[in-house]
Amino acid sequence: MFKFLKLSVPASILVMAPAIASAAENLAQDDFVGISFWLISMALVASTAFFFLETQRVSAKWKTSLTVSGLVTLVAAVHYFYMRDVWIATGETPTVYRYIDWLITVPLLMVEFYIILRAIGAVSAGIFWRLMIGTMVMLIAGYMGEAGYINAWAGFIVGMAGWAYILYEVFAGEAGKLAADKAPASVQSAFSTMRWIVSIGWAIYPLGYFFGYLTGSADVEMLNIIYNFADVLNKIAFGVIIWNVATSESKA
Ligand SMILES: *C/C=C(C)/C=C/C=C(C)/C=C/C1=C(C)CCCC1(C)C
After folding, report:
1. Cβ of 239 less than 6 Å from ligand 1
2. Which pTM value belongs to this model?
3. SS3 218
4. Structural domains counted in the chain
5. Is residue 135 a contact partner of residue 106, using CB atoms and an 8 Å limit?
6. Which domain covers residue 130, as residue numbers?
7. For the segment 90-113, what is each residue's pLDDT rounded down to a tens digit?
């Protein structure tokens, strides 16, 4: 398994290299949105290599968590290559790629919550399904609203309800209680940072929806830069928090 990872990380980076190189010629010096897409795609590639390689350093029960963190940044890196190209070629917001990315990475981040809890003791499968249902309601409603299948406000309101349900589960529901009661101190602090990311960090996306689509007042450039840095926080920083607890718990 880890021999496979050792080989596959450099191999996957090599496979991505042509796509990385071809876009570089078209990137204008003053295209700061394009530059932010570029920077973040590279940061995501580097994070992926880092999380995968670090699985070798942590104890068995933490390996899955780090692997999932690496999958999140890997999936996002590939989407960022596409989004960067769309932006550079058209100057338009690559909405559909963002949603496809979210549809894969957000459930993986929810799986992460569940795995963290499982690493410290018995958890019910109900937690997993409730987090998953909240995620799906949030994203499907958001996409249907943005793509015009349903009323934009209806999509927003239903999506907000899905997010509220996730927040309820991680703060006050079974997941929240479990972490508060049973977890060692380092896991508790990681869990609490993770849930602040899910509330404050994730709030950036519905704000983008609100200002970008519902009221139409945001400018496209600002919106994309904000989304891009939100992804650094919610994907890379989220992974680093898990890496931190995984390495310190493995030493203990
Ligand atoms: C890595 C990507 C992440 C963490 C994306 C998260 C996306 C959201 C939290 C989106 C939330 C939305 C709502 C709460 C309301 C409806 C519109 C959405 C889908 C933008």
Report:
1. no
2. 0.86
3. coil
4. 1
5. yes
6. 2-251
7. 988 888 999 999 999 999 999 988
